[in-house]
């Protein structure tokens, strides 16, 4: 039996063709699940009894449970319990342009970034595609809202769970699925080069964000283990190729860590590294956590850094801070929940 929420429309079309039905049935089933939001096959009135039986024999509707919910004015954070009792987070952010949901891709994370809370909880397993789809359905239903944007920036490394992430994007982007526009979907990676290259030939216009966080290998290797495997030059080369093929602008995320990567010298170095690349830099005020020694850069230091990039013609924004009060920083809700138990 297969959880229906992990099945792409293409897979469902193939299933119907294999069973001597027209592939069009897949669209009808998707419409029932993702538009009408039914959660049993017998409610699918435009399908014959025979087809409903076939579906029931092969698929089931999996579920996840809302375990905790923390609300603030501009953010709502959810903790879900999965069927094997693992827990996973999703953070909803209210923007003026819509509602954006930050989704996790793994239980824990093995990337070992020194500043990141998620990495303290080692990877337990990849999330199934269904476990990325269901938080969207659950939250839309719980708050009676429509989620317009998805960022894969929660716990885990999306490119360490590549196939499930691609199926997830296929389902949420499908016009018969959740029809979330590809330009409203962002995948963030710490820089797994072979997967950036693979993603370059993915046929959807999804946004790519790279967690760069340093202008050179010396600093990056100190704070991100992945830099021991793939160096900054390789990231830049892969990103340039990605832009050449896709014609899309890439985002570089840069967490401002006090005394580590926030000097003007770093800003000049970053500007020269990114010169001429169709990109923008998102400066992220560090969200401090009690377990990790890194501190956030002061506002003035962030503004100075911003100015240097601006004056050197690099597109740059400073990320608005969300949810400090509700432990919205990566991995914090789950970490606090587990420690409180
Ligand atoms: N593994 C992926 C996606 C998850 S992390 C990646 O590395 O991109 C999403 C973003 O949040 C990354 O840029 C990550 O470096 C950043 N991040 C992690 N901990 C943070 C913290 N405490 N404050 C601010 N940003 C943080």
Describe this entry's structure for a reader:
Helix 4 (129-143) crosses helix 5 (162-173). It is built from 11 helices and 14 strands. By secondary structure, the protein is of the alpha/beta class. It has 2 domains: 2-60, DNA polymerase, domain 1 (Orthogonal Bundle), CATH 1.10.150; 65-338, Alpha-Beta Barrel (TIM Barrel), CATH 3.20.20. It has helices at 9-18, 24-35, 49-58, 129-143, 162-173, 193-200, 217-223, 232-246, 264-274, 299-311, 332-340; strands at 2-3, 59-60, 65-71, 75-81, 87-95, 98-103, 106-107, 125-126, 149-152, 185-189, 207-211, 250-256, 279-285, 315-318. The model has no long low-confidence stretch (mean pLDDT 94). Strands 3-4-5-6-9-10-11-12-13-14 form a 10-stranded mixed beta sheet, with helices on one face. The protein has a two-stranded parallel sheet with strand order 1-2. The longest helix is centred in the middle third of the chain and has 15 residues, at 129-143. Strand 12 (250-256), helix 9 (264-274) and strand 13 form a beta-alpha-beta unit. Bound molecules: S-adenosyl-L-homocysteine. The site of S-adenosyl-L-homocysteine (SAH) has 19 residues, from strand 10 and strand 12.
Brief sketch in words of this structure:
The protein has 341 residues and is an alpha/beta fold.
- Going across the major beta sheet, what is the strand order? 3-4-5-6-9-10-11-12-13-14
Q: How far apart, in Å, are the first and last alpha carbons?
A: 34 Å
Number of domains: 2
CATH topology of the largest domain: TIM Barrel
Total strand segments: 14
Discrete helix count:
11
CATH class category of the largest domain: Alpha Beta
Low-confidence stretches: none
Question: Which descriptor suits the 3D outline?
Answer: elongated
- Mean pLDDT across every amino acid position: 94
């Amino acid at each position: 039996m297969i959880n229906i929420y992990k099945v792409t429309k293409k897979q469902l079309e193939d299933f119907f063709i294999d069973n001597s039905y027209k592939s069009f049935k897949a669209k009808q089933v998707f419409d029932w699940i993702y538009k009408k939001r039914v959660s049993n096959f017998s409610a699918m009135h435009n399908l014959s009894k025979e087809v409903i039986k076939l579906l029931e024999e092969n698929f089931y509707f999996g579920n996840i449970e809302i375990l905790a919910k923390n609300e603030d004015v501009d953010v709502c954070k959810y903790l879900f319990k999965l069927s094997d009792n693992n827990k996973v987070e999703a953070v909803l952010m209210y923007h003026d342009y819509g509602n954006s949901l930050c989704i996790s891709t793994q239980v824990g994370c093995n990337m070992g970034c020194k500043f990141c809370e998620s990495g303290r909880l080692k990877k337990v397993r990849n999330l199934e595609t269904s476990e990325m789809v269901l938080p969207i359905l659950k939250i839309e239903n719980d708050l009676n809202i429509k989620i317009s944007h998805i960022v894969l920036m929660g716990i885990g490394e999306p490119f360490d769970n590549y196939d499930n992430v691609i199926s997830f994007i296929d389902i949420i982007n499908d016009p018969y699925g959740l029809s979330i526009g590809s330009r409203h979907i962002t995948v963030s990676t710490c820089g797994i080069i072979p997967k950036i290259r693979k993603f370059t030939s993915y046929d959807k216009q999804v946004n790519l964000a790279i967690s760069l966080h340093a202008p050179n290998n010396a600093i990056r290797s100190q704070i991100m283990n992945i830099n021991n495997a793939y160096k900054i030059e390789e990231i830049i080369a892969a990103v340039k190729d990605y832009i050449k093929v896709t014609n899309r602008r890439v985002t570089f995320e840069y967490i401002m860590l006090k005394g580590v990567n926030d000097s003007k010298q770093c800003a000049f170095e970053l500007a020269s590294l990114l010169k001429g690349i169709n990109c923008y830099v998102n400066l992220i005020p560090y969200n401090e956590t009690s377990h990790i020694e890194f501190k956030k850069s002061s506002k003035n230091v962030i503004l100075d850094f911003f100015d240097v990039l601006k004056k050197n013609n690099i597109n740059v924004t400073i990320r608005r801070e969300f949810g400090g009060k509700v432990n919205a920083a990566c991995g914090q809700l789950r970490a606090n929940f587990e420690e409180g138990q």
